[in-house]
Amino acid sequence: MSPASVFIVEDELIEAEDLRQTLEKLGYIVTGIARSGESALESLNTTRPDIVLMDIHLTGRMDGIDTATRVRILHKIPIIFLTAYADETTLERAKVSEPYGYILKPFDERELHSAIEMGLYKHRVEEQARENERTIRVLANAIPDAVMLLDHSRQILALNNAMEYRLGRILRGSGAGPEHFLDHYGISESILSRLEESLQHGRTLHVVEKTGTDWFEISLNPIPGSSPDRPLVLVQYHDISDYKRLEEQLKTEGITQIAQNMEQFQILNDQIRNPLQAIMGYVSLDCARYRENIMKQIGIIDDLVSRLDHGWVESEKVRKFLLRHYRDNRDDDPGTSPPAGQRGEHR
Amino acid sequence: MYTVLVVDDDPAIREIFTAFLQRGGFTPVAVSGGRECLDLLKTLTPDIILLDLMMEPMDGWETLRAIRHHPAAGQVPVMIVTGKQPVPEDILQYGDMIEDFIGKPVEFEKLVACLTPTLEKIRDLHRMTAQKRESGTDTALIEEYTRLLRLVRITQNMSRRYRNIPWAERIALKEQEERLASLHTLLGFTDTPGDRGDRR
User: Which site from A9, B11, B30, B67 is most exposed, i.e. has the minimal number of CB atoms within 10 Å?
Assistant: First the structure.
C-alpha cells in the first residue's frame, strides 16, 4: 500500500514545519501546508490528501472548526484536530463537525501516528459502509415494487424510490410525513390488523388491495429485529393489475368460448342423429338393399365424431378456464394459478 | 289420403321418410328447407308438416313462426322431428303451436303409425270447436283452449320421454291443466278430442 498523504492546516510556521518533518519521518507524504482556513479550502480544490491535520485556533475569518465543517461537506476528507487547549464550547463545536480524531498539544510521534492510523481506518470503514448502503439503495430502487421496512411501532426505517413515490401520492396535500400514513392514510383497516398479525406471529401474509383501477398484492414479511421483542416487517407492494386484467379477459373469453362450444355440440349432436335416423330407416326398409347407404351414413357419423374429438383438442382456452375455476387443487399448476396471496379469492 | 309435408335438409332423411310415408298410405311431399316449405304452401295445403329444427339459413322455429303467419296454411298442424335436444324454453315458447316434438332417431314405423291418430285428434278438435264457433262462442276462448291443449299434451309427452328434465315444473303443468279443465267446462265440451294415449 502506498504511504498515506497528509495536508496540514497550521498558522504557526515553526509548528507546521516541525509537524511536516515528524510526518515524513513516520513515512507519510505531506501534500501541502496552509496557514488559514481560506487558503486550506483553496488548496484542497486541487489536491486530495488522505487526511487533514487541522489546528483549531487559526487566525483569519474561519477557525479550524469552521474550516473542518466545510471540508467535510465539500471534500469528504477525514480531519484530525490539533489543539493546545480547548474550552467546553469549543469542544462541543468540534464534536458537531464530526472529526476523526483529536490530539492535544504537545504530542509525541507515537500519539500522532496512532491518531492518523485510527482516523484513516475509521474513514475507510465508513466509506465502505457508505458504499454498501449505496449498493443496497441501487438494488432496492431497481425493484419496480414499492418496498419499505417498518419497525415494531410501524415507523418507517427504510424505503425505496417506488415506495417514496407511492407514499408521496397518498400523502400529497395531507401535510403529514410518510411515517404517519399507516396510522392515518391510504391503507385499509384490514392491512393494519394483518400487519399486527404478521409482527406478532412472525408470519408472512399477503393482502390483495384495489386502489382505483390498480390491483396490488401487499406482502408483509416479518424480519428479526435487534431484539426478539422488536421485530421488523418488510412491506412490499406488487402491482398485479395486468394479471387481474388478463384474468378478467380470460374469464370473459372462456365463457364466450364455452357458449360457442355448447352451440357447436348441439349442432353436431343434431348432425349425428340424422345419419342414425337414416340408418334406422334403411335397416327397417331393407338391410341388404341399402347396405351402401347405411355404410355411407356410418361414415358420416364417424366423421362427425372425429370432429368432436378435434373440437376438444382445439378448446384449450376452455380447458384452462375450467382448470382455473373449477379444479379443487390448483397448487401444481403454476402456469395458471395466481400469486400465493390470492388463493382462495375466487372460490 | 293425407298429404304429409317433410321439411328436412338431409337428403337421406327425405328419401326414407318418403318411402315410409308411401308404405303407410300417405301422400308424401319433401322439401329441403324453410324457404322451400313456405313457397310450396302457396300452392299446396298439406294435412300435417314434419319439420326439422336445425337448418340453414332459416331454422325450424323461424319456419314455424312463418307458417303460423301464412295466409293459406296458418292452421296446418306441425310436428317437430329433430336431432336437437329438447329444452323447456323451446316448449314454453312454441309448445302451443305444435302437435308434438319427436327426437331423432325415431323408428319410422312408429312415427308413421302415430300420424293417423294425431290427425284424427286434430279433426275431432276442429269439429268440436267449429260447432262452438257456429253457436257464437268467443273465438278467443276457443283459440286459447286449442293452444293450451297442445301445450299440456306436449308437456305430458315430454315428461314421459325425457325424464331427466323437470318439464312439468318448468312449464307449470299443474296450473296449465287446471286452466285447461276450467276452459273445457266453460266451453261446455263433454268429451276430450280423440285421446288415445301415447302416440310414440
Answer: B11
What is the model's pLDDT at position A26?
94
Is residue A58 domain-shared with residue A150, that is, in the same domain?
no
* CB-CB neighbors (< 8 A) of B53 in chain A: 270
**B12 contacts A276? CB cut-off 8 A:** no
ipTM: 0.80
CATH number of B3-186: 3.40.50.2300
Of A98, A103, A34, the residue nearest A68 (C-alpha): A98
User: Is residue A298 within 8 Å of A279, Cβ to Cβ?
Assistant: yes
pLDDT digits (tens, 9 = 90+) for A230-278: 888 898 989 899 888 888 888 888 888 888 878 888 888 888 988 999 9
Clarify whether residues A262 and A181 are in a common domain: no
User: First-to-last CA distance in chain B?
Assistant: 21
- Write down the pLDDT at residue B114: 92
Could you tell me if A126 and A38 lie in one domain?
yes
Let me know if B58 is exposed, middle or buried by CB neighbors in 10 A (0-12, 13-18, 19+). Answer: middle
| CB–CB contacts below 8 A, A to B | 61
Structural domain span for residue A199: 145-239
A132 and A247 in a common domain: no
Q: Three cell numbers at B45?
A: 295445403
CB contact under 8 A, B12 and A278: yes
pLDDT in tens, A154-210: 778 888 888 888 777 665 555 555 444 554 445 556 677 778 888 888 888 888 887
Chain A positions touching B107 (Cβ under 8 A) are: 280, 284
Chain A's closest residue to B107, CA to CA, is: A280
